[in-house]
């Protein structure tokens, strides 16, 4: 499940849009090096007109969450080929937002990605500029965010469901299986819907991470940078690592925060994530247990069973909500899971669980809606639908037998999410996708000629466990900054230790000492 981190100073409904990070995938690829047709094309192979672009940036007014300072931004669009093997064919347009450097001696551009996959980088760049308003980073770099192909304001945009279908619980993943599973007919219909609403099957075939990495290299050149400086959180660490694999000599600096493990395939990584979520749930329950009115009880060892007893009845009878929509089992679990991305949201989840005791679901539904980006008038962004479609190209594609095994293992690893019903048949929503997966596992290994990188990893990160950060730093041959804390990612946490280490690396290319640690 994706969720993105925003610092407490701007927490709120809009804040949750930046907490979204690593989403469980449903597709995949073969292990090893680049597959046929995946090698990066370069200028001189029909791509010169794309690499030669000079985006026309014009002042724009990004929407900022309440309490965040305004930033002076400028926007533009970048054209890229939909299929890099056919540069004369259909094109995509990438939405860009730039916040110019505050100082008079800028180093260049710092390209940012907030995670997902499927979340817009334009909003992320504006908010990061606000959070880093006094940082030496914003003095020395233009902050540049882009909405990856298929995402946000980029065109064509991925779209699979109507807002009404999203409100009714349109499926975005096979987990949890056993309540309302995709049938073979439904997975075929999913492909048809996504293709029809997104611009055709050819769009669905070209939205994977390797496509976005190529776009990022076109963007690097268009911004006038000889080499790329990049900061990515959660899924953004996958994007940065894949760029490093494909364009190692074009890398200046990579900051990878909340790392996805390049060595773990879909099943292993999702079980790592489920294990981390359960551990975080139990730590939340232990914190709650110190208070006499804790709805999970005073015995943390029984908290999972208490929670199951509260949420499992919602399968047959949703809890009432003030807007009349009701709160389902899946929505209740999503709401609690959203709060596991940062300790700051634990009290919100606990309050929501307490409401369930009285048969009310408003607080958990609000968490769930923020997680999905739903507005008060019922409009959804395309972020999670983009997550689904992008993962169809990035993740390992499972047979029903493999998907059933994944679900059973996930419930065993995170029993607070288990509905207690038998799993009959789970299907991979991507089973009818028009092309095979294009990422490949493992990725970003044995890279030659890559300069020093910086991986930032939080010890209590439930969504991208610390082990993945250790593995990524090792595979890239770069440095690791370990951060003691309870949240997903650390770059926007407002922590002086993290901020100083990241600024020293980005500006002066000075990596932290081996074994360096910060504390949130």
From TrEMBL:
As for family, the record states: Belongs to the peptidase S33 family.
One Pfam family, short name please?
Answer: Abhydrolase_1
Q: Hey, what's the signal peptide range on this chain?
A: 1-27
List the Gene3D superfamilies.
Answer: alpha/beta hydrolase
* Name of the protein in question: Alpha/beta fold hydrolase
Key words of the record: Hydrolase, Signal
InterPro entries for the chain:
AB_hydrolase_1, AB_hydrolase_fold, Pept_S33_TAP-like_C, Serine_prot/Carboxylest_S33
Q: Where is the AB hydrolase-1 domain?
A: 110-320
Q: What GO molecular-function term can you cite, just one?
A: hydrolase activity
Name its species: Nonomuraea cypriaca
Region annotation Disordered: residue ranges? Answer: 29-48
Can you tell which superkingdom this protein's organism belongs to?
Answer: Bacteria
Residue ranges constituting the Peptidase S33 tripeptidyl aminopeptidase-like C-terminal domain according to the UniProt record: 422-518
